[in-house]
Amino acid sequence: MTNQLVLKAPFKADHVGSFLRPERLKKARLQYENEEITSEQLTQIENEEITRLVEKQIESGLQSVTDGEYRRKWWHFDFLSGFDGVEFYETDKGLSFKGVQTRAQGIKVTEKIGFSTHYMIEHFKFLKSVAGDAVAKFTIPSPNMLYYRATIEEGVYNSDEELFDDLIVAYQGVIQALYEEGCRYLQIDDTSWATTFSEEGIASLKEKGLNLEQALKLSARAINEVISKRPKDMLVTMHICRGNFRSTYITSGSYELVSETIFGGLNVDGLFLEFDDDRSGGFEPLRHINRTDLYIVLGLITSKHGALEDIDQVKARIEEGTKYVPIEQLCLSPQCGFSSTEEGNLLTEEEQWGKIRHVVQIAGDIWM
């Protein structure tokens, strides 16, 4: 793998990262929770299933591969609980999606946030060891997710700014550690921006004592500062999501209200954007893109159901996107992962791989 190859990412046919957990893995995790197998036995099964997953991604035509988040229950809580001062715990109720609620788990900040080490660095090392000539992409939640999802125990921090000061330094530490292990393609996943896509979401910011301007300033600061010290040959993209749990979602709304910040004020190399249905609005907010080196990955293929999108319609939407962004800066992917939590979306593994091949085929027709 060369730096030149990594610098072509995000790839014209790319993906968000999580994949449906195979039945063997689900069974093993349940056995581990019931103390029927050891952690070593579970890790061995995870390793074997991740190896198969990487082979399947390459076979399907992808140039970047992930571990499918196979070792995680949640796309965000598992990672965030790896920082010093952050704990995983059982909550009173789960997160509310449209018509369904997640399991009752969460994270809390009990001491000052810090980075001394992080157990997921080993997860990346294994992924890289089996990636072969493909680019090993690692996915982590945005620092904003801790701020918006964690319970902060009283007395730990006196202000949001103080919390972000520590959080940013901790993220800089783990990003550098991942780089030292060979990570050159990092993806930051963030659902917090979706709070600012609707008037309802903006109203909810008042619970944190924020208005829209304050929220955008905090969120943009977190993203830009955590990646400000990344080495030049480390590419960082961000995936902006409206929620993805068992094929449901949390919120709707166009990027329009905050488009100047997202498309003109973030220093990432690429943005993975949801555009798979009407909930995301049109492409007009993309007019605020003011860089020729910012790549936009259009999430036009849904991961929420198995039916394949009409190829001509997808191509027509990509053509529509060129009204605002040159075709050279556009890419294609599913709008989100297939399994943001271990429960997974409501489609089969066969349908999942059909979606991936669909992305690769369409991207090949357009860009190759």
From TrEMBL:
<dbReference type="InterPro" id="IPR002629">
    <property type="entry name" value="Met_Synth_C/arc"/>
</dbReference>
<dbReference type="Pfam" id="PF01717">
    <property type="entry name" value="Meth_synt_2"/>
</dbReference>
<dbReference type="InterPro" id="IPR038071">
    <property type="entry name" value="UROD/MetE-like_sf"/>
</dbReference>
<protein>
    <submittedName>
        <fullName>5-methyltetrahydropteroyltriglutamate--homocysteine S-methyltransferase</fullName>
        <ecNumber>2.1.1.14</ecNumber>
    </submittedName>
</protein>
<dbReference type="GO" id="GO:0008270">
    <property type="term" value="F:zinc ion binding"/>
</dbReference>
<keyword id="KW-0808">Transferase</keyword>
<dbReference type="GO" id="GO:0009086">
    <property type="term" value="P:methionine biosynthetic process"/>
</dbReference>
<keyword id="KW-0489">Methyltransferase</keyword>
<feature type="domain" description="Cobalamin-independent methionine synthase MetE C-terminal/archaeal">
    <location>
        <begin position="15"/>
        <end position="342"/>
    </location>
</feature>
<dbReference type="GO" id="GO:0003871">
    <property type="term" value="F:5-methyltetrahydropteroyltriglutamate-homocysteine S-methyltransferase activity"/>
</dbReference>
<dbReference type="GO" id="GO:0032259">
    <property type="term" value="P:methylation"/>
</dbReference>
